[in-house]
Amino acid sequence: MVYRSVIVGCGAYLPQKVVTNAELAARVETTDDWIVERTGIRSRHIAADGETTGDLATHAALDALRHAGVDPSEVDLVIVATATPDNTFPATAAKVQARLGCPGGPAFDVQAVCSGFVYALAVADNFIKAGQVRTAVVIGAETFSRILDWSDRTTCVLFGDGAGAVVLRREDGAGTNADRGILSTHLHSDGRQHDLLYVDGGPSSTQTVGHLRMTGKEVFRHAVVNLAQVVEEAIVANGLTPADIDWLVPHQANKRIIDGTARKLQMSTDRVVVTVERHANTSAASIPLALNEAVKDGRIRPGQLVLLEAMGGGFTWGSALVRM
Ligand code: UT7
Fold first, then answer.
1. Mean pLDDT score of the chain
2. Per-residue model confidence (pLDDT) at position 139
3. Ligand 1 and 224: CB distance under 6 A
4. Quick one: fold of 181-323?
5. From CA 310, how far away is CA 151, in angstroms rounded?
6. What ligand 1 atom has the least distance to the C-alpha of 24?
């Protein structure tokens, strides 16, 4: 039997607290003007004390299940994409699975930093295509505020906390480009670029959580090249042209990177979902947060073709082409 996976619901959760650029300018030597001009970011959500990635993930998953009209007991796979898990182990996904009330099936975390959601979506899609599960919840959830060096202006202004989720359902048949479903996923990594974006701690190296370190300019340069390559790869693999894509839902790291990718695709800005100004970079959560927003406000409609793309630490990068 041949199967495909269909996105049947989206959800999101953002912590209540909003921190503006002006508030950060009171802590480090920066300005609202610099942050807006270089990144497009105006504010970000920050988790409350004691509010964990698992909390954010559970809220987003429940929202997605409600939107899908799927009872949590039907979920047989839970994947959380995160680089900021609640604990070193067990997986945050196991905690979320227990809270959703769907024990028994596989639940695990996927760690590909900002590309984590695309990686997790690809893994869930392959579980479904292999016939191993019927209903999956794929969540991107992060509390990057916990791994930021709040005295480093080159990184602390760039990130935020949040979670987004989708529900995938198995449908019979491979389908065509015209049918609803995940049409393709393409994943890449290049571990030689480790030092350009990493956390300087971890259980096996320093026995501390550590702080995010980034050589921003170099990451920017690689992001533009890798994202152009991976969107082209997705379009060619499906025998399509950029004009066939209804929406680009990119990872939200920097408005200038998003604009560069859209320009390469010759997509006008009104076909690109942008949330970076209000969410900042939420790593693995950024794509499902943006997708949720555009689905719920009616911009993205059933049957439309949506291209997801991301690039992050590792380096990792990837894309998913989805008929909604
Ligand atoms: O999600 C994972 C992938 N991550 C990314 O894609 C991030 C990619 N990188 C970027 O988005 C950009 O490189 C940044 C936004 C991080 C930086 O923008 P940039 O245009 O590359 O600036 P820069 O790093 O070259 O810094 C320019 C200047 C420097 O001063 P000097 O050396 O020219 O005197 C920085 O020290 O801006 C200074 N600067 C700041 N000034 C005010 C750096 N951070 C700040 C700040 N406020 N927050």
1. 98
2. 99
3. no
4. Peroxisomal Thiolase; Chain A, domain 1 (3.40.47)
5. 27
6. 48
Structure tokens at 194: 């480790």
Per-residue model confidence as pLDDT tens digits over 162-175: 999 999 999 999 99
Query: Closest Cα to atom 2, ligand 1: which residue?
Result: 312
> Is residue 214 within 8 Å of 223, Cβ to Cβ?
no
239-255 average pLDDT score: 97
- Residue 94 has a pLDDT of 98
Nearest CA to ligand 1 atom 12: 216
Sequence-distant (6+) residues with CB within 8 A of 15 are 45, 46, 47, 48, 51, 56, 161, 162
* Secondary structure of 175-244 as H, E, C letters: CCCCCCEEEEEEEEECHHHHHHEEECCECCCCCECCCEEECHHHHHHHHHHHHHHHHHHHHHHCCCCHHH
Task: Read off the pLDDT of each residue in 156-184 and give the average, rounded to a whole number.
Answer: 97
Residues pairing with 167 in the sheet: 9, 137
| 114 C-beta closer than 6 A to ligand 1 | yes
Place of tokens 């209000």: 278
Give the pLDDT confidence score for residue 34 in this predicted structure: 98
Give the pLDDT of residue 43. Answer: 98
Q: Using CA positions, which residue lies closest to atom 16 of ligand 1?
A: 216
Q: Is the CB of 216 under 6 A from ligand 1?
A: yes
Query: 37, 38, 315: which to mutate for ligand 1, most atoms within 8 A of CB?
Result: 38
Beta carbons of 305 and 322 less than 8 angstroms apart: yes
Decide: pTM greater than 0.90.
Answer: yes
Residue 61 CA to ligand 1 centre (angstroms): 34
**Residue 54 identity (one-letter amino acid):** G
Name the CATH code of domain 3-172 (choices 3.10.100.10, 3.40.47.10, 3.40.640.10, 3.40.50.720). 3.40.47.10
Q: Which pLDDT score is estimated for 172? A: 97
Longest CA–CA separation in the chain, Å: 60
* Domain residue ranges in the chain: 3-172, 181-323
pLDDT tens per residue, range 208-232: 999 999 999 999 999 999 999 999 9
Map residue 82 onto helix, strand or coil.
coil
